[in-house]
Design brief:
By secondary structure, the protein is an alpha/beta fold. It has ten helices and 13 strands. The protein has a domain at 20-182 and 225-253 and 288-304: NAD(P)-binding Rossmann-like Domain (Rossmann fold), CATH 3.40.50. Its EC number is 1.1.1.271.
């Protein structure tokens, strides 16, 4: 017999037969969370495609949560994209994310879901936050303009979790991952994040024999990259150990200049030509390194280094290309 979820306390393992709903289960993060939960022994992990249940639709979301009656919800559903997509479509990044979060939190409350983890992003912090960025720097300064609409939506999500905790005593939490990558990522050249975009650009240049690859911006911004399988492991760890209104950072504690990332991707895919920089493209935030001391104090550390994660993600990209032929 497993313990009922209502008796869960921080530090106690969650019962492996508890029903978990992973919102956004077909995306980069959601699919990794589903894989990790199943590997960790969870026997009742439920996902849903947006074509089946549109989480921007309040009635559809409420009906689905009522019928599914999960004990745990992981909100990995979001409209996401890289610097160009965020800058080009602020309406969708604001409204889709506000709707998804409000619908999910409200439906989870009506369905009496005891444990919920909402995922945000490191872009919620001020553009010039002191580095590494501590959780308490939230709302202490102006946001990076290329992604302020998305950031405001995610800050509203944090406030949603905090409000349900305060008003209804829910043991709900939120976590803020740094820049993510891994299998299942979006490799669209205009809409994706930097790491998958560079994998594709360098790969295509090597295959076609192109002499140069163009990298956006100056190459000087620094970013921290977390493999999505590590994030998934952190999500379970947080669901089992963390019960606090403050969002908690999830990262690796190290960052690299985009120029170094570009060289690493070039080496990984075997591109030996020249790297040029298109400074008409925005750099975005100069640096976004998370302070992960609170997460480390809970006993969690990532296990996948950037070189290793990049190599396996490139392998996945090649397999996908093969499968598409
Ligand atoms: O990953 P990325 O699009 O997002 O860009 P952000 C990171 C850095 O890589 C920027 C540069 O300085 C880009 O100019 N970069 C260089 C490139 N070449 C490329 C390229 O080919 N494609 C892309 N996409 N970038 C996003 C936010 O910010 O990060 C989101 O817009 C979210 O809201 C996400 O927070 C994690 O790190 O700048």
């Amino acid at each position: 017999m497993t313990a009922p979820l209502s008796s869960w306390e921080p530090g106690r393992p969650l019962p492996r037969d508890a029903r978990v709903f992973v919102a956004g289960s077909s995306g980069l993060v959601g699919s990794a969370v589903v894989r990790h939960l199943r590997a960790a022994g969870f026997t009742d992990v439920v996902g849903v495609r947006s074509s089946q249940v549109d989480l921007r639709d309040v009635a559809a979301t409420t009906r689905f949560l009522d019928e599914t009656a999960p004990a745990i919800v992981v909100d990995a559903a979001a409209r996401v994209g890289g610097i160009a997509a965020n800058a080009a479509e602020p309406v969708e990044f604001l409204h889709d994310n506000l709707r998804i979060q409000a619908n999910l939190l409200d439906a989870a409350h009506r369905a009496d879901v005891p444990r919920l983890l909402l995922l945000g992003s490191s872009c919620i912090y001020p553009k010039f936050a002191e580095q590494p960025i501590r959780e308490d720097s939230l709302l202490t300064g102006a946001l990076e303009p290329t992604n302020d609409a998305y950031a405001i939506a995610k800050i509203a999500g944090i406030m949603g979790v905090q409000s349900y905790r305060r008003e209804y005593g829910r043991s709900w939490i939120s976590a803020m991952p740094t820049n993510l990558y891994g299998p299942g990522d979006n490799f669209d050249l205009e809409k994706s994040h930097v790491l998958p975009a560079l994998i594709r650009k360098f790969h295509e240049a090597r295959v076609s024999g192109a002499p140069t690859v163009t990298v956006w911006g100056t190459g000087t911004p620094r970013r921290e990259f977390l493999h999505v399988d590590d994030l998934a492991a952190a999500c379970l760890h947080l669901l089992e150990t963390y019960d606090d209104p403050a969002p908690i950072n999830v990262g690796v504690g190290e960052d690299v200049p985009i120029a170094d990332l570009a060289s690493l991707v070039a080496d990984t895919v075997g591109f030996t030509g020249e790297i040029v920089y298109d400074t008409s493209r925005p750099d975005g935030t100069p640096r976004k390194l998370l302070d992960v001391s609170r997460l480390q104090a809970l006993g969690w550390k990532p296990t996948i280094g950037l070189a290793e994660g990049l190599a396996s993600t490139y392998q996945w990209f090649l397999e996908q290309q093969g499968a598409q032929r």
